[in-house]
Every structure is written in C-alpha cells, then in structure tokens.
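Kindly inspect this today.
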Amino acid sequence: MIVLALASAPRPAGLAALYALLSASHPQRVLVAYVAGGFLFSVAIGVIVVAAFDGAGIEYGGNTVQYLIELLAGVAALGFAAGVWSGRAQLPSRGESRAEQSAVIRKLGHPSVGTAAVAGIATHLPGFFYLLALNGIVAERQGLVDDIVQVLVFNAIWFGAAIASVVYFMIRPGAARRTMLRASSWARRHARGTTITVFAAVGVYLSVNGAAGLID
C-alpha cells in the first residue's frame, strides 16, 4: 500500500495548483482549503468502498483472487510503461501540458476558499493506484476500523507533499514559492520519464508480489 501511495503523489497538475495558490493574496486559507477538500473527498471515497464491501460480506476466496489482480495489474502497468517508452502510448504533449497547467494557474489566480477546495478534489481524483490499494485493503478483510485506518494512512502519504508545502509556507513563504515553482517546472519537463519510472517500478512490484503469492 505504501508503494502505491508514493506512486500516486507525482501529479504535475497538483504541483501547478499548489504553486498558483502559494501566489494568491490570502494563501494560507486557500492552501488549507485545497488540502482539506482533496483529502476529505479522497478519504470519503475510500471509506465508502471499504464499508460497502465490509457490509456486503463479499469473500475473495482466500488470497488467490487478490494475487491474481496484483499480477494482472502489474503486467498492465509494465505494458503502459513500455508503451510510453516506445512511443506507442502517448502522454499529453508538452504544449498541451503547459496549456493545461496555465489554465489551472489562471483559474486559481484569485481563488476563493470554495474554488481551492474544488481544485483539491479535481487534482486528487482516485486513480489506478488508489483503486488497487483499496482492492488490497478490502481483500485483507481486517475489519472495518482497520480498513479505515489504512485508507487514512494511504491518503496521508498521498497528500504528504501538499501538507508539507502548507507547513513550509507558514515557516518560509518566499522559499516555499520558489521551491514549488522549481518542482512544478521539473515535473512538467520530466513528465514522460517520471511516468515510465513510476509505472515500471510499480509494475515490477505488483507482478513479483502477485506471482509469488500465486506460487505459494
């Protein structure tokens, strides 16, 4: 789960949104709204999923199905990484990526608390890795309370960079803006390499873990 949470973190749109909010006229309020909005929404989705499975009493038939899902997901992640590396799978072009991030920055140039909260949700919608993590949590069936704790831990790791940015800004506002600008620019320039590395690493992890579980 920790691997999947860390893999979920590098999102260029999220970094662009954070930089835009750091430059707002009242950054502390909107930064807190951004993190709180995204965090609470993501946690709510996770809690709803694990509670629904717990209430339905759905059984996985041991760990076989879970390991099979991990293996298939790992192969899919490796396939996507290979596709991006070979050029068969395309990420948005640099121009499109810049236009998208510029649009985010324009919309968040003078944000309200509500707009910042919505941006936090929009830039942290549940993706491939989060759904896999939820599947793993449900498959372990450790009880609803433990499942919710795991959902909270996943999201705390996922939102760690955003939370750290808010704390850093409160301590050193100027340095925080400069750091976030560099991070946003770096993420935009290296989006392709980052995507290949993250999906390849997660693909290997899931494939090995799933295959080992099926063999045992």
About this structure: The chain has eleven helices and no strands.
